[in-house]
Amino acid sequence: MKKHVGRGGGSSRRDRATGSRVALSIHELAAGGAGVARTEQGEVVFVAGAAPGDVVEVDIDRAAHPARGKLLKILTAGPGRITPPCTFVETCGGCDWMHLSPSTQQDAHAELIRRAISRATAVDDLPPIHVHPALQPLGYRTRARLFAKAGRGGAPRAFKKPPPPPGKPPRVEVGYRASSSHLLASVDRCLVLHPALDPLLRELPTLLAGATGEGDVLIAAGQGGRPVVEILWSGDLPPTTWSMLDQRIAEGTWAGARVSLEGVSRPASFGDPRPVLQGADGAPLLLAAGGFGQPSEEGASVLAKRVADLAWLDLPARPMHVLELFAGSGTLSILLARGPSGADLASFVAVEHGAEAAACLRENLSARGLAGKVVVADADATPVPPRADVVILDPPRAGASGAAAAIAASSVRAVVYVSCNPATLARDLVPLLASGLVITHLEAVELFPQTSHIETIVRLARHRPSRAPALS
Ligand SMILES: C[S@@+](CC[C@H](N)C(=O)[O-])C[C@H]1O[C@@H](n2cnc3c(N)ncnc32)[C@H](O)[C@@H]1O
After folding, report:
1. Are 317 and 443 in the same domain?
2. Whether residue 453 sits in one domain with residue 312
3. Is the ipTM of this complex over 0.95?
4. Per-residue pLDDT tens for 413-449?
5. Residues 182 and 326 in one domain
6. Of 106, 117, 32, which is closest to residue 423 (Cα–Cα)?
7. Lining residues, ligand 1, CB within 6 Å
8. Checking CA distances to 315, which of 52, 142, 200, 282 falls within 20 to 30 Å?
9. Are 440 and 309 found together in one domain?
């Protein structure tokens, strides 16, 4: 449906200028999170902040492709719309689906995955997608990337503060990158941050007061659940920042910190700056400082357990050779290297290009007495050994077209592909399916609740699937 909103129901003045105010019905959600509507003329309009079933008044920007509708008013709320619990939701770019109920988020995630895969592969009888819900939809983030900026400028209007009185060090605003921009949306509370990390939003402006420039600040849970802070700064930091870092570590309130200044080759390290989660096996899992980590401890655990369950389906009678690509610090490896219960592995090889992550992975395996070879190499250019039985891969958002080609050319019995980007996953599935592998299981883990992001697990095999193990 479409209805012009404006005097007399006709085109408003904006129609003839930069945009047009219209009422549109939202019929689905697109990858990237926006609601999708169609005008009477059939023009597709993306509306950020919309929910399926909403009727919204928008201001259309036709310079963008597809056209973008700025949400002005919700005329009728769709059935899955809820009131977001966070007051920063409209300016902060972090939680683009906080206005959707958990079940609406899950349904939309499953639909985005199904659509991406069936479009790319032309397979229309995909297995049903089981979505593992988040047990903690708020307070789940055990790591986050913040943005900090000194002095004036950059903050969206609502967050601009008056200039500091003369003699006071310039304030540093801390928050997230604002939605659809690189501006700073300063926040002093974040409902999705783990309670152990949320206080940092109020401490970091003090830590950085007097700095010039801007930078990213990565925060995570470290040893003993205490925060670790990684500052990547372009500009100058005042002496008080360094002394406060020393103090935080000495008094034991933070487990560690690391500061990388632009133009300075070596970072300054305080305490142990490596994040630590509880691994899926219940033991501590050490992560590379500044390296990759899953956003939540609980989600990482669900993911690792499910990946291992799927890797061990339809076991051969002999010990297996297992290859893990894009292994990171070992979130999945600590279960994979263990092998299926009661059965030894013939070999476990994990490939990761980050030296610090690979070092953590070795440490994580050896702390558990697990054998495995960790190779520092390009996983997207790693040949799959002829003897490999199962390949598990978890590439970054760009996907793994090289690895997919190598797997397609191999004779592996099964593949478990973990992806945070349905589009590149779908692209990489094309050669895998063409090589004779079939999708036996399709699952999603709500690793990023309140956002349009989703983690997908696909298992492929060369033979008919056995019954799936019970989902917990
Ligand atoms: C999505 S993360 C997954 C890591 C691990 N599975 C986990 O859950 O923590 C992808 C990992 O691949 C690594 N990586 C990215 N490109 C790579 C490449 N070309 N070769 C090897 N590793 C790569 C990154 O450093 C990162 O650790």
Report:
1. yes
2. yes
3. yes
4. 999 999 999 999 999 999 999 999 999 999 999 999 9
5. no
6. 117
7. 292, 294, 326-329, 331-332, 351-354, 357, 378-380, 394-396
8. 282
9. yes
